[in-house]
């Protein structure tokens, strides 16, 4: 029994004493529609590859690109794609526990959870299977986009902080630029372009801006 099976079975056993009358499926249908695409090593789409999808519930055949309905299972699905004059493409499509399995465990009851595990309806595969010809790949269900956004927030904040700091640095006069401005003011005063009072006022304003 693999880890996914243990998680679902344990959930069912825990809930079993609570709702022994709940014996219907919690998560719904045992069938799932999946799309299969094939590409070459350079990313070019490969049309007309013959693919075989297999898990412990059955075997399905499809020409790419195309869709088919498979039987859900806790077993990872193996995909083999063939096309004349090309190396075979292989993929292991990971079976994942559906989020609704644990969210609805109380409503379906322990027996329902065990039924869902047994018939495969507690699990799901990625909706799109992209097989690269001439290689082996592992394909998993995409995670929640909002969770990814939360993970990206620290980096965004760090970038924003760095950007703000750069702008502040650009706006703050450096010691070298201040010294040059003071020399320029002094030259203007010595050349009688500005008066002593004007020189003192401008020098004071410049120093206060630091």
From TrEMBL:
Q: Spans of biased composition, class Polar residues?
A: 158-180
Sequence segments annotated as region (Disordered): 140-183
Q: What is this protein called?
A: SHOCT domain-containing protein
Q: Which organism is it from?
A: Magnetovibrio blakemorei
Q: What is the lineage of its organism?
A: Bacteria, Pseudomonadati, Pseudomonadota, Alphaproteobacteria, Rhodospirillales
């Amino acid at each position: 029994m693999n880890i996914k099976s243990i998680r679902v079975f344990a959930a069912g056993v825990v809930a079993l004493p609570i709702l022994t009358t709940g014996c219907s499926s919690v998560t719904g249908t045992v069938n799932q529609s999946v799309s299969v695409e094939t590409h070459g090593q350079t990313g070019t789409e490969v049309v007309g590859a013959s693919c075989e999808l297999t898990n412990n519930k059955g075997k399905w055949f499809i020409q790419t690109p195309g869709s088919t309905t498979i039987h859900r299972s806790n077993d990872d699905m193996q995909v083999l794609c063939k096309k004349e004059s090309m190396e075979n493409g292989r993929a292991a499509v990971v079976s994942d526990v559906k989020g609704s399995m644990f969210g609805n465990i109380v409503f379906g009851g322990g027996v329902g959870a065990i039924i869902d595990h047994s018939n495969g309806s507690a699990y799901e595969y990625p909706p799109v299977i992209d097989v690269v010809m001439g290689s082996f790949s592992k394909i998993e269900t995409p995670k929640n986009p909002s969770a990814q956004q939360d993970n990206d927030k620290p980096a965004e904040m760090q970038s924003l902080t760095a950007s703000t700091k750069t702008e502040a640095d650009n706006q703050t006069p450096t010691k070298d630029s201040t010294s040059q401005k003071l020399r320029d003011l002094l030259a203007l005063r010595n050349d009688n372009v500005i008066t002593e009072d004007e020189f003192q006022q401008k020098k004071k304003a410049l120093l206060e801006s630091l």
